[in-house]
Amino acid sequence: MKRALLFVLLLSYNALWAQNDQYSLSGYVRDAATGEELIGVNIVIPSMGAGTTTNSYGYYSISLPPGEYNFSVQYIGYESQEKSIVLDSDTKLNWELKENSTELQEVVVTSEKLDRNVSSVEMSVAQLDVKDVKKMPALLGEVDIIRSLTLLPGISTVGEASNGFNVRGGNTDQNLILLDEAPIYNSSHLFGFFSIFNADAVKDVKLYKGGIPSRYGGRLSSVVDVRQKDGNNREFSGTGGIGLLSSRLLLEGPIVKEKSAFMFAGRRSYADVFLFLSPDENISENTLYFYDFNAKLNYILGENDRLYLSGYYGRDVFGINDLFGFEWGNATTSLRWNHLFSDDLFSNFTAIFSDYTYALGTPEDDAFNFRLQSTIQDYHFKNQYTWYANSKSEFEFGIEGIYYRFKPGTITGSVELQLQEEYALEPSLYFSHEYRLNTRLTLQYGLRYSSFYNLGAQTKNIYQDQELPLEDQVIESRTYESGEIIKAYNGLEGLEPRLALNYRLDDEKSIKASYNRTRQYIYLISNTTAPTPVDLYRPAGMHIKPATVNQVAAGYFQNFLDNKYELSVESYYKDFQNIVDYRNGADLIFNETIETEILPGIGRSYGLEFYLRKQQGRITGWLSYTLSKTELKVEGATPDLAINAGEWYAANYDKRHDISLVLNYKLSSKWDIGMNFTYQTGRPITPPEGKFQVEDWVVPIYRDRNSYRIPDYHRLDLSANYTPPKVEGKKFYSSWSIGIYNVYARRNAYSIYFEQQDNLNGAQTTNLNTQAVQLSIFGTIIPSVTWNFNF
Amino acid sequence: MKRIQLYILLFTLLGLFEACTDVVELDVDAAEPELVVDGFLSNDSFSYVKLSQTAAYFDNADFTAISGAKVSLYKDGQEVLVYTESNDQAGFYESNYLGDFLSVYQLKIEIDNGPDKIVGTWWSDPDTLRAVPNIDSLQQRRLNRNTTPQAFQDGEYAVMFFGDLPGAGDFYRVIRSLNDSVFAQENNFISDEGFDGIYFGQGFIPPINIYGPFEDPENGSQPDSLGVILQSVSPAFFDYMQILNSQVQTGSPFDAPPALVLGNMYQENDADAHAFGYFRVVGSSRNGIRYQP
Asked: Which of A167, A280, A456, B37 stands the most exposed, by the fewest C-beta atoms within 10 Å?
């Protein structure tokens, strides 16, 4: 430990010393047409092999000794720029990049190579260009960012229309999904059919599967960082589309030209509008739709200050006749202030409010009406700093505080009941240092320290055995005052070291390795294979411990054929502690003593990921393959509580093989064709090893958890996009997207369930025969057509 | 089952495609046969114990009965009867014995012949025959959605009046029959959690809507008659039935994970060796009503 600390101090000292007699070049990189700041743009000095990239706000800074340098700025999909600059003082330089207008060209006009995947110390990162996502075939023509991410290695879902996604053997609640830094607690619309992200409003998406930077914390398995568009600060414009399922419209424009801008986007599905046409009353009198709004304002206060205010509001509404209603959705607000203390010290202050609520109940005018509502709310404050010390060193440090408010259940109406609210505080601080030791070796090391306080006011049960809380063994009810600490997790176990290493074999090849420990203090209380909208997060506390994971990963990265192709092969191993499972028959909804239903467990996941991407030329796309295994173990305090007799069993989302091929072919200047093919090993299920009869019930006997697999999944989708050339002087232009989902109409198994045959509620005779039934969601071809427009 | 139906409804509501189902057969190995006990004792009707074997899931032949066992009932630690195996139905052991309230009962089963996992002596957990409230009345009422949310259709319904016994932790099971034919696979339980001591049908608490709407009799036939049995059951049996109900159909992503449904029967001297099924001891009251068109 002492040696490690000494090494860190030496590196930091080296970085500090190296900054003497240096000047900085700094500024923003923007889209020339819209003024939108661009994220992740490479600014390189080819002669030195040095460089930097723009941060999430489009800002960059690099410090160098005095001299003349030739800078090159490169970004996929944009024309590169080069400039020679004499650096004899701190210099501000903003770059404006033009989108590539001739995508047909075989060789992109760059004099330098876009080799960030090889040169960057980052690994285990999945990134998609939203423009590429829009060209991919999509279910019902709905461009879906989350679904597209699952075509990348290491990311999967339990089924094609399931809430959430799984990353490297992690459960769906282990993903930190951020929209303009605000956490999103449910990323799906319509029970998982579509994601909540309106692709028109999204500027950038990045998913960290491993090597997670120390600025992120709070979830075990991944971080999905989604950034909304800032808004066009040069001219008023709009984007929209009309599809089979929904329509959308985005408006953006300057409030004060070049100084402030707005972006407002809305989307609504309208399947329900046509439901009333159905002759079947069971369908015509139902309701089902979703809508969402994205909004953002940004204001340039001066040379060194910018303000961003962004928000999201989405709801799904589902009603069965006029008997029962159900709605759920997220709402977020983020206020961010960027401040440059100096050209090489960038800071960001963020205040966030996030809310996820679901409600269900009967109409208010019913004689005995009720409404059950559950909510999680959090209030964040963050203060982050990036110090661009010199061309070799970059430091990040900051603090973060999250105050949670959990409202597990409130019933109003004819009967009024309320479960106790829960409160928690999660403060953390972190730093990281990226240091280029020489032209070959780059090191990034960091440390995050997080703690967690479960707070009153609340009355908690004290059980005979606090490690094994049983409902009938309550010895005392203890009341805690408002703000009083019920349970604190603030020891050394809250240290989360992060380490990443890049060794460049040559200009085109590198090997990388990373280690990260992450910790999670809130859990999604859900004992179904795929989470449902009525699942809600609850905090760690007196009886539920925080979960941790240690992950090591190593990989080989290569670009070849003049950077047309990008290859990576990564392997990883994850070791999970204190993950949550549930007792058999656990009652999770409206349960105040949830600790009596929970069982702690451990997990392990390991895998190999292969990724080959072609990013230039007429044909672009990628091939990804993941070989992985994820297992869980719940021994239980007593044999009755063990799952699978305390032996390892496959996780519900364990899929041994997962292959995706995504291609786009630019047929002409007007037409391009897209194709997705995906193949996955069927997910595990538990088959009954027998059955028995009690009264008129035939009950399956389940012993070996997840010992069988549903048939393998495969599917081909096609799309064709028609984009007429823009007419000079005409602002309005439109395009068409035609898609076919599930081209060869495969009836992929979504699940297999086991049941007694033909027994309906109210029947007076019983059929004791049993059967297995395979449910396929899409048993046929699903065509789609969408008209998109811009003005 | 409800979850699957909800999901299929959801797909249909999207109005664009239909979810499809296929009956499939899985290639899974069947386990060795084990003992299944389905036993019942109450204060007001004959007691029975049905012994059978577990079967392979995809084998839809009748369950194999277990004959020749000695099945005895213990009351407060003393043997009070040995059940007689029915001549008409193999594996069905019966007695006219009626249980006494607040007595503790236990079942003992001795099996000498059969598969390895079945032979042996088995005991049930001791269980108390609990007090049960009377069903004070069943009444016919005209209901609709404006008066009662569960009354989906306007019509004549049967409503039940009864009061929960004082003291928290009571669980009641409701068994309904129409024209003496019991409704199949009903899992109707009432818990007094949060409602201890209330009377259904008094003040602002409505009576329980138990059946309806009645259908008018066809020409010349008798109007329907409804029978209701209210059973006071143990919390353990309530839990057992909730787990059983969650496991009768499993496998959809929105279902609870599959679990072994274990009841209250154990092998002598080995509490970890369970038999399947349950010996339930219930306090019981009953009432009935004939529809008046």
From this structure: A280
For residue A325, is pLDDT > 70?
A: yes
Task: Look at residue A159 in the predicted model and tell me its pLDDT.
Answer: 82
Q: Is B184 close to A764, i.e. CB distance below 8 A?
A: yes
Residue A349 has pLDDT above 80, yes or no: yes
Quick check: is B2 in a domain? Answer: no
Which is higher by pLDDT, B129 or A7?
Answer: B129
User: 3-state DSSP call for residue A174?
Assistant: helix
Give the chain A residue whose CA is nearest to the CA of B33.
A690
The predicted-structure confidence for A423-456, as pLDDT tens digits, reads as follows 999 999 999 999 999 889 999 999 999 999 999 9
Q: Do B36 and A768 touch (CB under 8 A)?
A: no
The yes or no reply on domain A22-114 and CATH 3.40.1130.10 is no
Asked if residue B4 is part of any domain, the answer here is no
- Residue A275's pLDDT is what? 67
Distance of CA B182 to the CA centre of its chain: 11
pLDDT of residue B241: 94
Question: Which range (A3-17, A552-566, A717-731, B148-162) has the least confidence?
Answer: A3-17
Q: Do B259 and A777 touch (CB under 8 A)?
A: no
Quickly list DSSP for B135-189: --EEEEEEE-TTT-TT--SSEEEEEEEEEPPSSS--EEEEEEEETTEEPTT---E
Residue of B nearest to A530 (CA): B253
Q: Do A705 and B257 touch (CB under 8 A)?
A: yes
Q: Token pair of A337, please? A: 């202030």
The Cα of A96 is separated from the nearest Cα of chain B by a number of Å equal to: 44
CA distance B200 to B193: 14
Q: Is residue B187 part of a domain?
A: yes
If asked whether residues B241 and B123 sit together in one domain, one would say yes
- Inside any domain, residue B91: yes
Chain B residues close to A417, C-beta within 8 Å = 194
Confidence of residue B44 (pLDDT cuts 50, 70, 90): very high
Domain that holds residue B44: 32-130+234-282
- What stretch(es) of chain A map to CATH 2.40.170.20? 226-790
Nearest to B15 among A274, A318, A362 (CB): A274
All residues at 6 or more sequence positions from A2 whose CB lies less than 8 Å from its CB, including other chains: none
Q: How many domains does chain B have?
A: 2
Quick check: B57 and A529 CB within 8 A? no
Asked if residue B126 and residue B36 are part of one domain, the reply reads: yes
Which site among B18, B42, B57 would you substitute to test the A interface, given the most A Cβ atoms closer than 10 Å to its Cβ? B57
Report pTM: 0.88
B92 and B40 in one domain? yes
Residue of A nearest to B6 (CA): A320
Instruction: Look at domain A226-790 and name its CATH class.
Output: mainly beta
B239 and B193 housed in the same domain: no
